[in-house]
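chain below, 61 aa
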Amino acid sequence: MERLWITGDCWLGCERTGVRVLWLGPVQWDGYTAPFMACEPCLDRLMAQASAYLVRRLVSA
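prediction:
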C-alpha cells in the first residue's frame, strides 16, 4: 500500500506543524469531523505500541 505524505500538522502527540504527515482517518465528535494526521516519528511510536500490544495478547493466549 502506498502512503500519501503531505505537509501539515501532527495531531498525534508532538503537535509539530509544517512537517510531513500521513492521514490516519477522520476524528469524529458531535457530528463534526477533522482530519487525523501523524508525522513519521509519532506514527512509528504508535505502530510499536500496537505491535507490543499484539505480542502480549498472543503470548497470554
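The two ends are 30 Å apart (CA to CA). DSSP finds one helix and three strands in the chain.
thats it, cya
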